């Protein structure tokens, strides 16, 4: 199985389904009330973001998912920076409605994504990236069991022209069994 293949991933907490245009209404409602700092980004227009992510999918660079709880799309997450030759992938561009934050939905989604990447797609690494100033995201990535690889200084130019230092984390195949055990324990 390839990282770019459309697939539904599901457990008792969450369903990850291939992102579709008809998720737009629910996702637009899901983003209401999100309070994000200057160093994060959540799409203001769900329809436009879906169009962008689907174009990236069609180009083989991204495999986007709608995060569905109780039959309703409550956020998005993505396999991105896909390298089929190595093979390796980044999990990113994730955002969740305030109604499901701190409920285990993100942990359950990451368990599904990581399991699929390591067990079905046989990747050599899963990467996570975040802004240096996004301490909440950094802590969440570390709670997953990812290890910090380093900091890419002046890695990106933000929409406002500021330079972003990106913190890079990864999980490797030999670490996955322990990470999986930790994620399952957190969900119990």
From TrEMBL:
Q: What class of enzyme is it?
A: transferase
Keywords, A to Z? Acyltransferase, Transferase
Q: Which domain of life is it from?
A: Bacteria
* A single GO molecular function term of this UniProt record: acyltransferase activity, transferring groups other than amino-acyl groups
SUPFAM superfamilies referenced in this protein's UniProt entry, alphabetically: Acyl-CoA N-acyltransferases (Nat)
Q: Does the keyword Cell inner membrane apply?
A: no
Q: What is the protein's given name?
A: Putative ribosomal N-acetyltransferase YdaF
State the organism of origin.
Answer: Microbacterium laevaniformans
